Amino acid sequence: MHDLFKLLDDKHIEIPDHIREVLTGCTGFRVYGTTGELADAATGGRENREYVVKYKVPGKGEVTEAYVHRVKNGIAVNYPEPYMRRRDPATMAIADDQPSDKKRFGEKYGYAFSSLQEETFQWLQAQELAVFFYFAGRLGVGSHGLAIVPSNAAFFAMGLSMLQAIIPPDELKEGTELGSVIFVAPVFRHTHFNGKQVVVHLRTDRMHELYAYNLYPGPSAKKGLYGVLLTQGEKEGWITAHCSAVQSVSPYDNITTFMHEGASGGGKSELHQHIVREPDGRVLLGTNSVTGEERLITIPRFCSFRPVADDMAFCHPSLQRNDGKLRIIDAENAWFVRVDGVTQYGDDPFLEKVTIHPGKQMLFLNIESNPGATTLIWEHIEDEPGKRCPNPRVILPRDTVPNVIDKPVSVDIRSFGIRTPVSSADKPAYGIIGMFHILPPALAWLWRLVSPRGHNNPSIVSTGSMESEGVGSYWPFATGRRVIHANILLKQIIETPRTTFTLVPNQYIGVWKVGFKPELLMREYLTRRGVARLRPDQYQPARCPLLGYELNYMTLEGSKIPSRFLKVYNQTEVGLEGYDAGAEQLKDFFREQLLQYLQPDLLQTGKRIIDACLSDATTDEYNELVPMTYQYSFNDMDSYERDQEFMD
């Protein structure tokens, strides 16, 4: 008997028969206990500085999947196919008969998964395998699992072990239950799926099985296991939010906690970025894409901040204090950080320092590398000559991030980000969102149901047009029914009235190219306000009701933000005509996406909110459905109690 099976038997840890058969029947397998061991194996041994991951594919011959380099600051991986350098949003298939709104495997591919499952096991048994245990989640929330990966794809196993926390076998506790398993078999991408990324979910009564038929970690090691957490939460009535979070401290010692949600590309990782000054010390607010005019402002001091989460956070019941604010904690052991915004030295000093001189091995993807050299996050690989890959990544161990917060935090501001295109009267689009808007809770819920993926998403394979990422912006990763998640989100929003909701664009405000400045300046502005109330004349219902309340004026450290950045119809290139045409695009998109949520088991409050949207409700009418407390203050207890009396 292999030592692994003896250890599991001694600890009374059950392992399903088909997994035991794969391991006992394979050419050989090694059990890994640390990420460092997997980093050594990533190049076929620590003594090797480069390695090629390749497989023999029937009918195609030898196919190279990845080039792996051992570099001074970790392991660098590059894929020869540009398609494999970003996540395909259509990777998921459901292979069981449990409740789901997703396409079943048989419906999608025309045959039963059981035949492919058997082929997968047979292929794995013909390989040398890397095996390790992980914990999907953090601080006791989540579940244990087992990874089974071809040994020559140890770089993939390394990334998985960083994201999900590798557990040495001898540290497994007596009676540990394995909640998930991931089988990695990249060759089937070519033999069965026409080269496409595919991740199959098979939910059994015993465990959640994942079959990853590609070697890009995004849809499997990260989002696939995110699906495992979402499945657990769907059964238990809580969500793992698709968000980043920071605790921001103003120069005057106000502390405000931000939680930023949104579809891929919506600015989650960017919430952690520092604002970069121009050479003269000012901050570039934006550049007019028509005239070339630049608008700069002066900010003497920036807020400091402590990172909380990068992409996923638990909203688990055990964390809540029932005091009117949502409490969250990071759900990841490492962060899958996109660095497309770092194009030259100095763009992000924090990330540059932590990745050039890391305390631990890092994994770089889609970034130029040379064996034995230092990999630099601004040197992105090119998809074609002169065209950078838009999705360069680094897996950043959480404990290498300075000042990171490990405990639960109460959320003051819960923002939602959307990538917006250039918008004008000549070419109207939905880039009509001002610097930031305040959303009534009912509208905040609708934005999370619709979750527009937005303009020119860099992280995934897409058309570049507006598409919906679905409920919570995590729907592509969920396995069950969207209406259940919609209900959980609505209950959560209603039960946390002291958490304020905002909407913030990135890339463009009308014709002004702004990048992620709106999000970062919102963080600066609202942190400085702390518990200070907005004056009644400072905001008003937006011209487009879906945008909640727009700001009439905004002053940051003595610098006035021009009205054209707050109300896009004030831009001469946009005007009322261009704004209203863009608003119609948004309204049409919302109507199209919301109809699918009108199911018999949708909460009645949810039905009223969707009916209001379909009937062109005003901003104030949305606020009447689920009143917000923002008119008083962010976190003033007296105003909260007045609001509770009003809602009761």
Throw out a few tags for this protein.
single chain; 648 residues; alpha+beta; globular; disordered C terminus
Written overview of the protein:
It is a single chain. By secondary structure, the protein is an alpha+beta fold. It has 16 helices and 32 strands. Strands 12, 13, 14, 15, 16, 17, 18, 24, 25, 26, 27 and 28 form a twelve-stranded mixed β-sheet that branches. Strands 1, 5, 6, 7, 8, 9, 10 and 11 form an eight-stranded mixed β-sheet that branches. Strand 14 (283-288) and strand 15 form a beta hairpin.
Q: Percent of residues in helical segments?
A: 25-40%
Outline: globular
Q: Calculate the mean pLDDT score and round it.
A: 93
**Biggest pleated-sheet summary:** 12 strands, mixed
Concise structural overview:
Helix 2 runs parallel beside helix 5 (113-125), helix 3 packs antiparallel against helix 6 and helix 10 (441-450) runs antiparallel to helix 11 (482-494). By secondary structure, this protein is of the alpha+beta class.
